[in-house]
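Data card: per-record layout.
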Amino acid sequence: MSEQQESFVSHLVELRDRLVRALIAVGVVFAGLCLYPGPGAIYDLMALPLTETLPEGTKMVAIGVVTPFMVPIKVTMLVAFVLALPVVLYQVWAFVAPGLYAHEKRVGLPLIVASTVLFIAGMAFCYFFVFGQAFKFIASFAPKSITPAPDIEAYVSFVMTMFLAFGVSFEVPVVLVVLVKLGLVTIEKLKEWRSYFVVIAFVIAAIVTPPDVVSQLSLAIPMCLLYELGIIFARFVSAPPPKEAAADAWAPASEADEKRLQDRS
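The structure for this 265-residue chain is written out next.
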């Protein structure tokens, strides 16, 4: 086996080990959540914004035979992944970092941390503010002749979609910083595109949120504010000068970088 093949195999082994460690972390947190407080309690907590708007004495329903078991398990797995996310991202960083140059490492780790915090912040904002307003709006339009009985599987699907939409939308500052760091856009261009982004934000909000004004504004306005925040942070980040980039390219920060460069060639 040639040296290049051995290096490729070693990378695959390292990738496998990192994945196993990440899965173990998620599994440990999942097992702990199953013991306390339990999948049922976790699901009840996620369903609280909806159940509070249902008529008194009304409960959600489960149509499928195994739905009462599988849906709380799925929700618990999601919570376990979110709680174990720092460990998962650390494994990703530990695998990728040796192949990065010095200036890439200086920006990479802060961006990973910021992405994680913003994604979780988007989910929290959606749960604590948007859900309550959206479900109250929907309940206000329900005819008096019917009794709402939402299906728990459909509710979880709705929640996952909303969490993903708000989590990704809150990544706007990270995207702007990366674009400026790579030299693809400038601060002046971002300022010029501000009005276009406002329109895009409201279009996205109209597509991914329930059809009420409060929910749409709850997504569009934070996106616009995060766009301004991204411009502010992008001022502190700029693409490395050509000489500095060339120096980093020819002078790796560590022996691991040098070995990875050799592997790339």
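Known properties of this structure: Residues 243-254 have pLDDT under 50 and may be disordered. The longest helix spans residues 102-140.

See the next section for split statistics.
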